Amino acid sequence: MKDMLKINHDHKYLLHNIDKDRPANYDYIRYILRFVKHDLQLKKLHPHMFRHTTATTLVEAGADIASVMHILGHRNIKTTERYLHVSTKHVKKTYQDRINKLDQL
Description:
The protein is mainly alpha-helical. It folds into two domains: about 1-40, no CATH class; about 50-105, no CATH class. Helices cover about 60% and strands about 5% of the residues. It has helices at about 1-5, 25-40, 50-60, 65-70, 75-85, 90-105, and strands at about 15, 20-25. The chain has a two-stranded antiparallel sheet with strand order 1-2. Strand 1 and strand 2 form a beta hairpin. The longest helix is centred in the last third of the chain and has 16 residues, at about 90-105. The protein is elongated and about 60 Å long.
């Protein structure tokens, strides 16, 4: 993956299948991850996990859910909500931040 990201190209896609000179598709990423999974001795690793991680990371970094919906290519916000797995730590911090703002009023 790191090698794929390092390659300097003029394509608008983040990941590019160099062998076939086209955007990396699901099957190609799954193919690459099979080797990563084996090398790291992981029990579970598949491309769809990155969609969940991306959605959660973006929201926890402050992105609004409507923007995340568009980034993931969803048409319905309910679909995006199913991808979110925010941590308890993030929920507690958000709650505390909002309570502190209320105290300042």
